[in-house]
# Entry
Amino acid sequence: MHKRLFIPGPVDVADDVLQKLATPMIGHRTKDASDLQRSISEKMQKLMYTKNQVMLSTTSGSGLMEGAVRSCTRKRAAIFSVGAFGDRWYKMAKVNGVPADKFTSEWGKPTTPEMVDEALSTGKYDLITITHNETSTGIMNPVEGIAEVIKKYPEVVFCLDTVSSLGGAKVEVDKLGVDICIASTQKCLGLPPGLAICSISQKALDAAKEVPNRGLYLDLLTLYEYIQKKDHQYPSTPSLPHMFALDYQLDKILEEGLDNRFNRHLEMAKYVREWANKHFEMLAEERYASNTLTTVKNTKGISVSDLNKELGKRGYMISNGYGDLKEKTFRIAHMAETTLDEVKQLLSIIEEILGL
Ligand SMILES: *Cc1c(COP(=O)(O)O)cnc(C)c1O
# Structure
Protein backbone atom coordinates (compact mmCIF):
# COMPACT_ATOMS: atom_id res chain seq x y z
CA MET A 1 0.00 0.00 0.00
CA HIS A 2 1.30 3.45 -0.84
CA LYS A 3 1.63 5.64 2.21
CA ARG A 4 0.52 9.24 1.84
CA LEU A 5 3.67 11.18 2.72
CA PHE A 6 3.61 13.94 5.29
CA ILE A 7 7.40 13.89 5.58
CA PRO A 8 9.60 16.86 4.59
CA GLY A 9 10.80 15.25 1.42
CA PRO A 10 10.46 13.29 -0.66
CA VAL A 11 6.86 14.36 -1.10
CA ASP A 12 4.05 12.70 -3.00
CA VAL A 13 4.14 13.51 -6.70
CA ALA A 14 0.98 14.00 -8.75
CA ASP A 15 0.30 11.19 -11.23
CA ASP A 16 0.42 13.42 -14.29
CA VAL A 17 3.82 14.75 -13.17
CA LEU A 18 5.11 11.21 -12.60
CA GLN A 19 4.04 10.36 -16.13
CA LYS A 20 6.32 13.08 -17.49
CA LEU A 21 9.34 11.22 -16.11
CA ALA A 22 8.55 8.56 -18.70
CA THR A 23 8.89 10.95 -21.64
CA PRO A 24 10.99 9.35 -24.41
CA MET A 25 14.60 10.50 -24.32
CA ILE A 26 16.08 13.22 -26.50
CA GLY A 27 19.74 13.90 -27.20
CA HIS A 28 21.25 16.17 -24.58
CA ARG A 29 23.16 18.06 -27.30
CA THR A 30 20.10 18.97 -29.32
CA LYS A 31 18.07 22.12 -29.78
CA ASP A 32 15.22 20.37 -27.95
CA ALA A 33 17.46 19.98 -24.88
CA SER A 34 18.42 23.67 -25.05
CA ASP A 35 14.76 24.67 -25.36
CA LEU A 36 13.84 22.50 -22.38
CA GLN A 37 16.47 24.08 -20.11
CA ARG A 38 15.60 27.58 -21.30
CA SER A 39 11.92 26.99 -20.63
CA ILE A 40 12.64 25.70 -17.11
CA SER A 41 14.92 28.64 -16.46
CA GLU A 42 12.34 31.23 -17.44
CA LYS A 43 9.66 29.67 -15.26
CA MET A 44 12.02 29.22 -12.32
CA GLN A 45 12.95 32.90 -12.56
CA LYS A 46 9.30 33.74 -11.93
CA LEU A 47 9.12 31.42 -8.94
CA MET A 48 12.38 32.84 -7.55
CA TYR A 49 11.58 36.47 -8.40
CA THR A 50 14.93 36.90 -10.12
CA LYS A 51 16.56 37.89 -13.36
CA ASN A 52 19.65 35.82 -12.54
CA GLN A 53 20.58 32.74 -14.52
CA VAL A 54 18.99 29.56 -13.20
CA MET A 55 21.11 26.40 -13.29
CA LEU A 56 20.33 22.75 -12.69
CA SER A 57 22.59 20.14 -11.17
CA THR A 58 22.00 16.42 -11.39
CA THR A 59 22.56 16.00 -7.67
CA SER A 60 20.24 16.52 -4.76
CA GLY A 61 20.23 19.97 -3.13
CA SER A 62 23.35 19.12 -1.13
CA GLY A 63 25.36 19.06 -4.37
CA LEU A 64 24.79 22.75 -5.03
CA MET A 65 25.34 23.63 -1.36
CA GLU A 66 28.76 22.03 -1.57
CA GLY A 67 29.38 23.62 -4.97
CA ALA A 68 28.47 27.09 -3.70
CA VAL A 69 30.71 27.15 -0.64
CA ARG A 70 33.63 25.62 -2.52
CA SER A 71 33.33 27.66 -5.74
CA CYS A 72 32.75 31.11 -4.30
CA THR A 73 34.64 31.45 -1.00
CA ARG A 74 37.82 33.47 -1.60
CA LYS A 75 38.75 34.36 1.97
CA ARG A 76 36.51 32.78 4.57
CA ALA A 77 32.90 31.64 4.88
CA ALA A 78 30.51 32.53 7.71
CA ILE A 79 28.17 29.57 8.08
CA PHE A 80 25.03 30.21 10.10
CA SER A 81 23.39 27.13 11.49
CA VAL A 82 20.01 26.68 13.14
CA GLY A 83 20.02 22.91 12.84
CA ALA A 84 21.12 19.86 10.88
CA PHE A 85 21.35 21.44 7.44
CA GLY A 86 23.39 24.44 8.55
CA ASP A 87 25.73 21.98 10.27
CA ARG A 88 26.00 20.05 7.03
CA TRP A 89 27.02 23.20 5.14
CA TYR A 90 29.81 23.80 7.65
CA LYS A 91 31.01 20.24 7.26
CA MET A 92 31.08 20.67 3.47
CA ALA A 93 33.30 23.72 3.84
CA LYS A 94 35.65 21.90 6.19
CA VAL A 95 36.10 18.73 4.13
CA ASN A 96 36.74 20.81 1.02
CA GLY A 97 39.44 22.78 2.80
CA VAL A 98 37.41 25.99 2.62
CA PRO A 99 38.20 28.28 5.59
CA ALA A 100 34.96 28.73 7.53
CA ASP A 101 33.49 29.55 10.92
CA LYS A 102 30.16 28.30 12.21
CA PHE A 103 27.67 30.48 14.07
CA THR A 104 25.16 28.27 15.78
CA SER A 105 21.79 29.16 17.27
CA GLU A 106 20.28 26.97 19.93
CA TRP A 107 18.03 24.42 18.21
CA GLY A 108 14.58 25.95 17.92
CA LYS A 109 15.93 29.51 17.75
CA PRO A 110 16.57 31.52 14.57
CA THR A 111 19.57 33.26 13.06
CA THR A 112 19.08 36.94 13.88
CA PRO A 113 20.14 39.99 11.84
CA GLU A 114 22.19 41.08 14.87
CA MET A 115 24.22 37.85 14.85
CA VAL A 116 24.91 38.29 11.16
CA ASP A 117 25.93 41.92 11.58
CA GLU A 118 28.31 41.07 14.39
CA ALA A 119 30.03 38.38 12.33
CA LEU A 120 30.29 40.32 9.08
CA SER A 121 31.46 43.53 10.76
CA THR A 122 34.75 41.75 11.59
CA GLY A 123 35.60 41.95 7.88
CA LYS A 124 36.85 38.36 7.98
CA TYR A 125 34.24 36.92 5.65
CA ASP A 126 33.42 37.17 1.95
CA LEU A 127 30.71 34.51 1.80
CA ILE A 128 27.77 33.81 4.08
CA THR A 129 25.39 30.87 4.15
CA ILE A 130 21.92 31.10 5.66
CA THR A 131 19.31 28.37 5.99
CA HIS A 132 15.97 29.88 5.01
CA ASN A 133 13.87 27.04 6.33
CA GLU A 134 15.51 24.53 8.68
CA THR A 135 13.85 21.18 8.18
CA SER A 136 15.10 19.64 11.43
CA THR A 137 13.74 22.28 13.79
CA GLY A 138 10.89 23.73 11.74
CA ILE A 139 12.35 27.24 11.86
CA MET A 140 11.87 29.78 9.11
CA ASN A 141 14.57 32.39 9.54
CA PRO A 142 13.73 36.13 9.35
CA VAL A 143 15.39 36.42 5.96
CA GLU A 144 14.26 39.99 5.17
CA GLY A 145 16.02 41.39 8.22
CA ILE A 146 19.08 39.24 7.59
CA ALA A 147 19.20 40.37 3.96
CA GLU A 148 19.09 44.04 4.99
CA VAL A 149 22.20 43.53 7.12
CA ILE A 150 24.07 41.60 4.43
CA LYS A 151 23.49 44.49 2.00
CA LYS A 152 25.81 46.59 4.15
CA TYR A 153 28.67 44.29 3.13
CA PRO A 154 28.85 44.35 -0.68
CA GLU A 155 31.92 42.06 -0.85
CA VAL A 156 30.00 39.21 0.78
CA VAL A 157 28.42 36.51 -1.42
CA PHE A 158 25.01 35.63 0.03
CA CYS A 159 24.08 31.92 -0.25
CA LEU A 160 20.59 30.90 0.81
CA ASP A 161 19.36 27.33 1.35
CA THR A 162 15.72 27.28 0.28
CA VAL A 163 15.64 23.52 -0.24
CA SER A 164 12.56 23.04 1.94
CA SER A 165 10.83 26.35 1.23
CA LEU A 166 11.11 27.30 -2.44
CA GLY A 167 7.74 26.68 -4.03
CA GLY A 168 5.97 26.81 -0.65
CA ALA A 169 6.93 30.27 0.58
CA LYS A 170 7.79 33.49 -1.19
CA VAL A 171 11.54 33.93 -1.69
CA GLU A 172 12.27 37.14 -3.57
CA VAL A 173 15.83 36.51 -4.68
CA ASP A 174 16.58 39.86 -6.32
CA LYS A 175 14.88 41.97 -3.67
CA LEU A 176 16.76 40.12 -0.91
CA GLY A 177 20.01 40.33 -2.83
CA VAL A 178 20.60 36.59 -2.73
CA ASP A 179 23.61 35.64 -4.86
CA ILE A 180 23.09 31.88 -4.84
CA CYS A 181 19.64 30.54 -3.99
CA ILE A 182 19.48 26.75 -3.77
CA ALA A 183 16.54 24.34 -3.94
CA SER A 184 15.90 20.72 -4.75
CA THR A 185 13.04 19.00 -6.45
CA GLN A 186 11.67 16.66 -3.78
CA LYS A 187 10.24 19.16 -1.31
CA CYS A 188 7.87 22.07 -1.98
CA LEU A 189 8.32 21.76 -5.75
CA GLY A 190 6.46 18.43 -5.69
CA LEU A 191 8.81 16.33 -7.81
CA PRO A 192 10.87 13.18 -7.19
CA PRO A 193 14.39 13.60 -5.72
CA GLY A 194 17.39 13.83 -8.00
CA LEU A 195 17.80 17.36 -9.26
CA ALA A 196 19.01 20.56 -7.62
CA ILE A 197 18.32 24.09 -8.80
CA CYS A 198 20.02 27.39 -8.13
CA SER A 199 20.07 30.98 -9.26
CA ILE A 200 23.44 32.66 -9.53
CA SER A 201 24.39 36.35 -9.59
CA GLN A 202 27.22 38.08 -11.41
CA LYS A 203 28.81 38.81 -8.05
CA ALA A 204 28.98 35.11 -7.20
CA LEU A 205 30.45 34.34 -10.64
CA ASP A 206 33.09 37.05 -10.25
CA ALA A 207 34.00 35.62 -6.85
CA ALA A 208 34.39 32.13 -8.34
CA LYS A 209 36.86 33.48 -10.91
CA GLU A 210 39.22 34.27 -8.04
CA VAL A 211 39.02 30.80 -6.49
CA PRO A 212 41.70 28.45 -7.87
CA ASN A 213 40.48 24.95 -6.91
CA ARG A 214 36.77 24.77 -7.51
CA GLY A 215 36.56 21.12 -8.49
CA LEU A 216 34.73 20.28 -11.69
CA TYR A 217 31.33 18.57 -11.41
CA LEU A 218 30.07 20.94 -8.72
CA ASP A 219 31.88 24.05 -9.94
CA LEU A 220 29.23 26.69 -10.44
CA LEU A 221 31.38 28.77 -12.80
CA THR A 222 31.97 25.81 -15.14
CA LEU A 223 28.23 25.11 -15.14
CA TYR A 224 27.41 28.73 -15.85
CA GLU A 225 29.96 29.17 -18.64
CA TYR A 226 28.78 26.02 -20.37
CA ILE A 227 25.17 27.15 -20.23
CA GLN A 228 26.17 30.47 -21.79
CA LYS A 229 28.44 29.04 -24.47
CA LYS A 230 26.34 26.02 -25.48
CA ASP A 231 22.88 27.57 -25.40
CA HIS A 232 21.55 26.15 -22.15
CA GLN A 233 23.22 22.78 -22.22
CA TYR A 234 25.29 21.09 -19.51
CA PRO A 235 28.91 19.87 -19.37
CA SER A 236 27.68 16.35 -18.50
CA THR A 237 24.42 14.55 -19.16
CA PRO A 238 21.65 16.03 -17.02
CA SER A 239 18.68 14.07 -15.67
CA LEU A 240 16.39 14.68 -18.61
CA PRO A 241 13.45 12.81 -16.99
CA HIS A 242 13.51 15.28 -14.11
CA MET A 243 13.74 18.15 -16.53
CA PHE A 244 10.65 17.04 -18.45
CA ALA A 245 8.75 16.68 -15.20
CA LEU A 246 10.03 19.98 -13.77
CA ASP A 247 9.08 21.94 -16.86
CA TYR A 248 5.56 20.52 -16.66
CA GLN A 249 5.23 20.95 -12.90
CA LEU A 250 6.31 24.60 -13.13
CA ASP A 251 3.39 25.20 -15.50
CA LYS A 252 1.08 23.73 -12.89
CA ILE A 253 2.64 25.84 -10.13
CA LEU A 254 2.28 29.04 -12.15
CA GLU A 255 -1.26 28.04 -13.07
CA GLU A 256 -2.19 27.65 -9.40
CA GLY A 257 -0.82 31.17 -8.91
CA LEU A 258 2.22 31.82 -6.72
CA ASP A 259 0.31 33.77 -4.09
CA ASN A 260 -2.40 31.10 -3.97
CA ARG A 261 0.24 28.45 -3.54
CA PHE A 262 2.02 30.31 -0.74
CA ASN A 263 -1.29 31.01 0.98
CA ARG A 264 -2.27 27.36 0.79
CA HIS A 265 0.98 26.48 2.56
CA LEU A 266 0.40 29.15 5.20
CA GLU A 267 -3.15 27.97 5.86
CA MET A 268 -1.97 24.41 6.38
CA ALA A 269 0.83 25.64 8.64
CA LYS A 270 -1.57 27.66 10.79
CA TYR A 271 -3.85 24.69 11.18
CA VAL A 272 -1.04 22.33 12.22
CA ARG A 273 0.42 24.91 14.62
CA GLU A 274 -2.94 25.33 16.32
CA TRP A 275 -3.27 21.59 16.61
CA ALA A 276 0.28 21.25 17.96
CA ASN A 277 -0.31 23.96 20.56
CA LYS A 278 -3.53 22.32 21.65
CA HIS A 279 -2.16 18.81 22.12
CA PHE A 280 1.63 19.26 22.41
CA GLU A 281 3.96 22.24 21.96
CA MET A 282 5.89 23.60 19.05
CA LEU A 283 9.67 23.52 19.00
CA ALA A 284 9.91 26.85 17.16
CA GLU A 285 8.72 30.12 18.56
CA GLU A 286 5.51 30.95 16.70
CA ARG A 287 6.86 33.99 14.84
CA TYR A 288 9.74 31.92 13.41
CA ALA A 289 7.65 28.83 12.66
CA SER A 290 8.04 27.32 9.22
CA ASN A 291 5.23 27.56 6.69
CA THR A 292 6.14 24.26 5.08
CA LEU A 293 6.60 21.87 8.00
CA THR A 294 5.93 21.84 11.73
CA THR A 295 8.25 20.32 14.33
CA VAL A 296 6.17 19.28 17.33
CA LYS A 297 7.69 18.79 20.79
CA ASN A 298 6.74 15.40 22.16
CA THR A 299 5.50 16.76 25.49
CA LYS A 300 3.25 13.74 26.04
CA GLY A 301 6.13 11.26 25.81
CA ILE A 302 4.44 9.16 23.13
CA SER A 303 6.42 6.67 21.08
CA VAL A 304 6.77 8.46 17.77
CA SER A 305 7.92 5.32 15.98
CA ASP A 306 4.85 3.41 17.25
CA LEU A 307 2.63 6.25 16.11
CA ASN A 308 4.19 6.08 12.68
CA LYS A 309 3.67 2.30 12.57
CA GLU A 310 -0.02 2.77 13.32
CA LEU A 311 -0.24 5.55 10.75
CA GLY A 312 1.44 3.26 8.25
CA LYS A 313 -1.28 0.63 8.68
CA ARG A 314 -3.76 3.34 7.75
CA GLY A 315 -1.73 4.55 4.76
CA TYR A 316 -0.01 7.63 6.18
CA MET A 317 3.51 8.57 7.16
CA ILE A 318 4.99 11.42 9.20
CA SER A 319 8.62 12.03 10.26
CA ASN A 320 10.33 11.34 13.51
CA GLY A 321 12.59 14.10 14.88
CA TYR A 322 15.90 14.66 13.11
CA GLY A 323 19.11 13.35 14.70
CA ASP A 324 19.22 14.15 18.41
CA LEU A 325 15.61 15.30 18.27
CA LYS A 326 14.39 11.79 17.44
CA GLU A 327 11.48 10.77 19.71
CA LYS A 328 11.79 14.18 21.41
CA THR A 329 9.97 15.75 18.49
CA PHE A 330 8.06 14.68 15.42
CA ARG A 331 7.57 16.49 12.16
CA ILE A 332 4.56 17.00 9.98
CA ALA A 333 5.26 18.37 6.52
CA HIS A 334 2.59 20.42 4.79
CA MET A 335 4.21 21.09 1.47
CA ALA A 336 3.98 20.71 -2.30
CA GLU A 337 0.53 19.52 -3.46
CA THR A 338 -0.83 18.65 -0.01
CA THR A 339 -4.19 20.23 0.79
CA LEU A 340 -5.71 21.52 4.02
CA ASP A 341 -8.32 18.76 3.88
CA GLU A 342 -5.62 16.12 3.74
CA VAL A 343 -3.86 17.72 6.71
CA LYS A 344 -7.11 17.72 8.69
CA GLN A 345 -7.62 14.07 7.86
CA LEU A 346 -4.11 13.17 9.00
CA LEU A 347 -4.47 15.03 12.30
CA SER A 348 -7.80 13.43 13.09
CA ILE A 349 -6.28 9.99 12.50
CA ILE A 350 -3.38 10.87 14.83
CA GLU A 351 -5.92 11.95 17.45
CA GLU A 352 -7.74 8.66 17.06
CA ILE A 353 -4.55 6.59 17.37
CA LEU A 354 -3.34 8.52 20.43
CA GLY A 355 -6.78 8.86 21.99
CA LEU A 356 -6.44 12.63 22.21
C1 LIG B 1 16.45 18.41 2.49
C2 LIG B 1 17.28 19.57 2.82
C3 LIG B 1 18.60 19.68 2.38
C4 LIG B 1 19.29 18.59 1.64
O1 LIG B 1 18.74 18.46 0.39
P1 LIG B 1 18.98 17.14 -0.46
O2 LIG B 1 18.19 17.44 -1.68
O3 LIG B 1 18.47 16.00 0.36
O4 LIG B 1 20.44 17.04 -0.70
C5 LIG B 1 19.29 20.82 2.66
N1 LIG B 1 18.73 21.82 3.37
C6 LIG B 1 17.47 21.74 3.81
C7 LIG B 1 16.92 22.88 4.57
C8 LIG B 1 16.72 20.62 3.55
O5 LIG B 1 15.46 20.54 4.00
